[in-house]
Design a protein that fits this description.
Blueprint lengths: L1 E2 L10 H11 L3 E3 L12 H6 L6 E4 L4 E4 L4 H21 L5 E7 L1 H7 L12 H25 L4 E7 L3 H5 L17 H17 L3 E6 L6 H6 L4 E5 L7 H8 L3 E7 L7 H15 L11 E4 L8 H20 L2
Helix pairs in contact: 1-3, 4-5, 5-7
Length: 323
């Protein structure tokens, strides 16, 4: 059993955050996102920086696709390149697992606008082009990570917080008076599978993440992800979860909240309760579990963010020793 972070962390100093992450986690490091530095460093801006062949700019309402990169898109790309230089400098010798996060195609489609103002979600061709651009850009990004960290075992976490709303037609239109039509599972699968294929072709492991209560675990399992990261305090571990776990999907339960400091006993109880409701014992499947926060820690106090990662590492190590 291991522990890791979800992605975002508090603060604006990347070098210091990298030192904290490496100091608090034993082996499964993650490249932190620091959204306090601005929208260019947030989940959407960070992922748009990877696009290949598509450009964007920041508008008052949201990020918007454009014919040429705007100043904000160029800034996002520059910041990503600078951050990778720092990661290489401080973690270039890392010979364990390294996790990189990227927003998935459906969260991007729900959050990014077309030139005319509606979301990419509204247009079938635009959805397809955005997914293809993201997949191509991610392939280039993973090759860069391989060059910078040649000894690391790469994991790619595809963040899809908006996927449940996309599937259930809950994403509001630009006017706010309607909702975009549902995306059927077959199209959702195709968009996700394109990213999964790129990750596997790069020799990395694909993991899906969503901190929504209604994670479409069967869809994610079917699309080829090796594991799913989720908020164990929100999810109802019903039959689809048990079936996915039995079929080989590993679980990364989120147990520590950014705003609710808890102790080891409470965290361990949350894990035991979730697995018991799922119908499995923690000790028998410890090697298939990775403990994480419930979601990103950007809103946490810096001290608690570090303590939470330390706690998860400690609990994971204790369970590993007792199995």
């Amino acid at each position: 059993m291991r522990a890791s972070g979800v992605g975002s962390m508090p603060g604006e100093d990347l070098a210091e955050t990298l030192r904290i992450v490496r100091g608090e986690l034993d082996e499964l490091l993650f490249v932190p996102e620091l959204p306090a530095r601005g929208v260019h460093a947030g989940m959407i801006g960070r992922s748009l920086a990877l696009l290949d062949g598509l450009s964007a700019d920041l508008q008052p309402s949201a990020w918007r696709l454009t014919d040429a990169p705007g100043v904000d898109h160029r800034r996002a790309r520059s910041l990503l390149a600078q951050d990778l230089d720092v990661v290489e400098e401080l973690w270039g010798d890392h010979d364990g697992t390294l996790k990189q996060q990227v927003a998935g195609p459906w969260t991007l489609a729900a959050g990014v606008e077309l030139p005319r103002g509606e979301r990419v979600l509204s247009d079938h061709g635009a959805r397809r082009d955005l997914a293809a651009s993201l997949a191509s850009g991610l392939a280039t990004h993973l090759a860069d990570l391989r060059r910078r960290l040649p000894h690391a075992d790469l994991v790619v976490q595809v963040d899809e917080p908006s996927l449940p709303a996309v599937l259930a037609a809950r994403v509001p239109t630009a006017s706010g008076f309607g909702k975009y039509r549902t995306i059927y599972p077959s199209e959702a699968d195709a968009g996700l599978r394109a990213l999964v294929d790129v990750v596997r072709e790069a020799g990395a492991t694909p993991v899906a993440h969503s901190c929504a209560p209604d994670v479409p675990v069967a869809l994610l399992s079917g699309a080829g992800f090796s594991a799913v990261s989720f908020d164990a305090t929100l999810v109802d571990p019903d039959d689809p979860w048990a079936e996915a776990f039995e079929s080989g999907l590993d679980l990364w339960p989120g147990l520590v909240s950014a705003l609710e400091p808890v102790g080891d006993t409470a965290v361990r109880s949350r894990l035991d309760e979730f697995m018991a409701r799922l119908g499995f014992e923690v000790e028998q499947h410890a090697e298939r579990l990775v403990l994480t926060p419930t979601c990103g820690l950007a809103g946490a106090q810096p001290a608690w963010a570090a303590q939470g990662l330390t706690m998860l590492t400690r609990i994971a190590a204790d369970l590993a020793q007792n199995t």
